[in-house]
Amino acid sequence: MAAAEAAVVSSSSLKTDSAPVPETAGTAAATAATSPATAAAAAVAAAARTGSEARVSKAALATKLLSLSGVFAVHKPKGPTSAELLNRLKEKLLAEAGMPSSEWTKRKKQTLKIGHGGTLDSAARGVLVVGIGRGTKILTSMLSGSKRYVAIGELGKATDTLDSTGKVTEEKPYDKITQEDIEGILQKFTGNIMQVPPLYSALKKDGQRLSTLMKRGAAVEAKPARPVTVYSLSLRKFQPPFFTLDVECGGGFYIRSLVSDIGKELSSCANVLELTRTKQGPFTLEEHALPEDKWTIDDIAQSLEHCSSLLPAELALKKSKPEESSEQVLSCEFITLNETKGEDDVIKTF
Fold first, then answer.
1. Where is the Pseudouridine synthase II N-terminal domain (predicted)?
2. Burial profile 254-267: b = 16 or more Cβ within 10 angstroms, e = fewer
3. N or C end of the chain, less CB within 10 A?
4. pTM over 0.85
5. Which CATH number fits domain 147-280: 3.50.50.60, 3.30.2350.10, 2.40.50.100, 3.40.190.10?
């Protein structure tokens, strides 16, 4: 935070009228109203008070920001990646505390840790679970917990990304597919099943994401099928070529792969048109996800208090005294987690 500069006014540089003023009841008021010295001195005092109050307020906010600890949820809109959204959240918090991010990257004495557990595609929206402070240590538990999605699939078109953001790679007829046909095959995709992850994903080959390699035009082989769990799967609506699914699944599951596999099972093809995560663990989109206008230190503090009761006892954070802090020595550690299991469940610091 840049300190507010206090103006210094020398009394010798201020001139007053030399004409005598009669001693009357209104002398003080008249002098205050007409004396440049008095007006200037009052302005300087007011400015000093305002600057001091601002410094105290920012310091208090910085202290409160560093004391935040736990897990809460935000509402991710379509467009930004999960990492980009987390960076936007970080920037808003730093700005509110009076700490531009450039200052935070230079300081290492005290650290604000913030991260997310469970990546959402850039084209998807919904619940994104965020950990702050010591809450980042329990984000891995969010990866294995259940998640719920509402997905709109489009029959008749396949894309390289398995969603509407990709290039169309195949088109097949779908006009003979009925609602009963879709409902009849959903059982095949329920329970403990095997699933091949998309090529455009956060999974890695030789230390690089498959999606990054694909964008570079590199030859990438599909990962082998792996076990995943679908707790429930139902058809909400069918209006050809679109069908809406309600899916509850475990960690490491890809909705894009599910929709693509459903299209193939129906002797056609399909891609994801819209995807919304409505629930992750105990956090729901309607009740717990903070919209961007609520990304303030106070609102997040209230959300952390409210959400603490949602976590299992073994994950609850013990309360500790807030760290003593100064807005001059804050830094930020930016953490993200992939939504995949095994070797991909790692904390990354930027």
1. 106-255
2. bbbbbbbbbbebbe
3. C
4. no
5. 3.30.2350.10
